Known about the structure:
By secondary structure, the chain is α/β, with parallel strands linked by helices. Helices cover 36% and strands 24% of the residues. It is built from 11 helices and 22 strands. The strands form 4 sheets. Strands 4, 6, 7, 8, 15, 16, 17, 18, 19 and 20 form a 10-stranded mixed beta sheet that branches. A 6-stranded mixed beta sheet has the order 10-2-1-14-22-21. A 3-stranded antiparallel beta sheet has the order 3-9-5. The longest helix has 29 residues, at 125-153. The termini are far apart. Bound molecules: flavin-adenine dinucleotide (FAD). Flavin-adenine dinucleotide binds next to helix 2, strand 2, strand 15, strand 20 and helix 11.
Amino acid sequence: xxxxxxxxxxxxxxxxxxxxxxxxxxxxxxxxxxxxxxxxxxxxxxxxxxxxxxxxxxxxxxxxxxxxxxxxxxxxxxxxxxxxxxxxxxxxxxxxxxxxxxxxxxxxxxxxxxxxxxxxxxxxxxxxxxxxxxxxxxxxxxxxxxxxxxxxxxxxxxxxxxxxxxxxxxxxxxxxxxxxxxxxxxxxxxxxxxxxxxxxxxxxxxxxxxxxxxxxxxxxxxxxxxxxxxxxxxxxxxxxxxxxxxxxxxxxxxxxxxxxxxxxxxxxxxxxxxxxxxxxxxxxxxxxxxxxxxxxxxxxxxxxxxxxxxxxxxxxxxxxxxxxxxxxxxxxxxxxxxxxxxxxxxxxxxxxxxxxxxxxxxxxxxxxxxxxxxxxxxxxxxxxxxxxxxxxxxxxxxxxxxxxxxxxxxxxxxxxxxxxxxxxxxxxxxxxxxxxx
Length: 437
Ligand SMILES: Cc1cc2nc3c(=O)[nH]c(=O)nc-3n(C[C@H](O)[C@H](O)[C@H](O)COP(=O)(O)OP(=O)(O)OC[C@H]3O[C@@H](n4cnc5c(N)ncnc54)[C@H](O)[C@@H]3O)c2cc1C
């Protein structure tokens, strides 16, 4: 009886303490988030809820970077780091095919070499396993965070839980079972479907598809750009502000952070750097050399009389197609060519052929901006940088989410908010620290 009452008093005291902390924050604490992609916008929403005065900065409008045209797949099943040994034998073939799923621009090759050395180093079993465990711990709770965010923002119409398919055309049933077991060994629920079962789920799929893995616990959005913008609108309603300008310098005296754009100097209590693939230079100013590269990826929009019900990934062709509100999005490819080079239209157009092979009803309508390129922010160990700067008490990082920025955005927002509030986050942020390189 007494113990129950004491517990109730403790809970009430904790609530009172949280309210006081929130009020203190709302009075005094300002935070600038640089980068208004999905990572910056979701963090802005959570930090505002936690009581901060939040200003988002971006050189473009909301969600015009990599978060605009991605494949919209909340891909929590993707727990395998890209730096894996099985990739090595495939590299020569990939490099000889300039339109294949993976390419390095010859003029960029020498610049990418240091990154590739680190990438190959991360294939060592000990590092591979550590990276995998870190990614797994992040991915495992990612969907719960999205469920919570979608329900709080009332954006269910943009979030679909139909699972996803990984299709096989030329591999034997034994190979498909092997792939299934690799996922199962990591605790991922996955079912192997035969041709008839695949056809029942997706009647429009090509009859070349012989097997598929069905992941039920994943989701997709019918427009990642709209989703990001809508979350921003909810954050704006709470009081988040937006400044359109490029931040060129950042400096901290450990009391205040000064950031400057071409025309203005801003002072703020804290800064969160969420600048995706463009984070290298600002990190350098803060004293960190980060091996950040961009894996350029493309999408091609097409129409189809009947769209698939869920994202479909091709095991052999290494691309994904996702039903969007304005058509079918064929997305993928990895290209190392830096941030400045124009898009390679031949590489985007190659997605069309792959798409037609899996979904024969595709009509190539070439409407509007049907070709798009985005800069995936990638570190050689396939993990993002998330957490507090070890050199400053008011600078925080959240960038480098490579192929999984959409998937991880909601949980990333929660853990970085906890970190900023000096609370213990739901996962250890040690594997994501900026000084691990
Ligand atoms: C083809 C393709 C398909 C993908 N599919 C998926 C998928 O299905 N699922 C998934 O989870 N992920 C996917 N991704 C990856 C995902 O899109 C990225 O990981 C994610 O968008 C990164 O978000 P971000 O907010 O960190 O970066 P961004 O969206 O690029 O945002 C960074 C922002 O910072 C701004 N900025 C940069 N520097 C400055 C500065 N100095 N001053 C002011 N503003 C600045 C930029 O303008 C930009 O708006 C895909 C990527 C590609 C290319």
